[in-house]
Amino acid sequence: MATKVGDGLAVIVTGAARGLGREMTLALALAGFRVAAVDLPSSDAEMADTMAQAAQDGTADLIAPMHGDITAGAECDRVVAQTIARFGCLHGLVNNAALGPQETGPMSANRRRRFDQIDRDVWLRTVGVNVNGTFLMAHAIAPHLIAQGWGRIVNIVTSYTTMLNAGNSPYGPTKAAIEAATVVWSRDLDGTGVSVNALLPGSAANTRMIPDEDFPDRAALTQPVVMRAPIVWLMSKASDGVTGHRFIGKLWDPADATADAVGKAGALAGWR
């Protein structure tokens, strides 16, 4: 049997039941990675659909669905420990779970809400998942990755324009925070063998974050499949030495030689 880039590697994907998380989970399994697919119990139906697709792909035995609430530190610690217990190893984290613009209402410009019109609980809940949850998962896995001298953390972010759009609080500011965190964490972990990078679709993606009433032509949106090729490369040993970068999924051409794809789709993360 031919060797795959993910053979021998195990990773965690949060928000794995649908959208970008689903595509990345399925792609990683197809590449030979063992994947802890983490989501809330409320997403069990979508997770069942993801596992049905994995069964068709012949990769269901490589994916372990797990419940986990990333806003609780103890839950993040449990997910890390449970993944190691299941697979006997752990090499990376895809920080994908997030609450999006749909939390604050339609995205159409004439219906956007100002920041002072947003319910405070919505702000706090979104920050709790997008910022605190991303930090807590990275915080839980980092000591293990550092101790073994190799690992991957990939944060799913968004386009700079989306971060700054009027009416895009709290989603935009939370993703800006994670863009900055990607740079800071990559510098903190310099020399440890653990890389920290960011990945984004590159434009509005066909997920539940984009309400149907605002974008009825779903084919005009960026399709989640654009995340497949770059996440496999980022989580593999092929990306050794690359850290503190951001990669745009829709600019990554799977048909390109990897060096060309990286050059077209990648740049330093952050505003520099």
Task: Describe the overall structure.
- The protein is of the alpha/beta class.
- The protein is built from 8 helices and 8 strands.
- Strands 3-2-1-4-5-6-7-8 form an 8-stranded mixed beta sheet, with helices on both faces.
- Helix 4 (120-148) links the parallel strand 4 and strand 5 (151-156).
Strand content: 5-15%
User: Helix coverage percent of residues?
Assistant: 40-55%
Contiguous helical run count: 8
Total strand segments: 8
Question: H/E element string?
Answer: EHEHEHEHEHHEHEHE
The largest pleated sheet is described as: 8 strands, mixed
Major sheet: order of its strands?
A: 3-2-1-4-5-6-7-8
Q: How many discrete structural domains?
A: 1
- Distance between the first and last residues' Cα: 44 Å
CATH class, anyone? Answer: Alpha Beta
Backbone structural class: alpha/beta
> Could you tell me the radius of gyration in angstroms?
18 Å
Low-confidence stretches: none
> What is the residue-averaged pLDDT?
92
How does the overall form come out from the CA principal axes? globular
Topology of this structure?
Blueprint: E1 10-14, H1 19-30, E2 34-39, H2 44-57, E3 63-67, H3 73-87, E4 92-95, H4 120-148, E5 151-156, H5 160-164, H6 171-188, E6 194-200, H7 228-235, E7 245-248, H8 258-265, E8 266-268
Parallel strand pairs: 1-2, 1-4, 2-3, 4-5, 5-6, 6-7
Antiparallel strand pairs: 7-8
Question: Can you tag this structure with a few keywords?
Answer:
single chain, 272 residues, alpha/beta, Rossmann fold, eight-stranded mixed beta sheet, 8 helices, 8 strands, globular
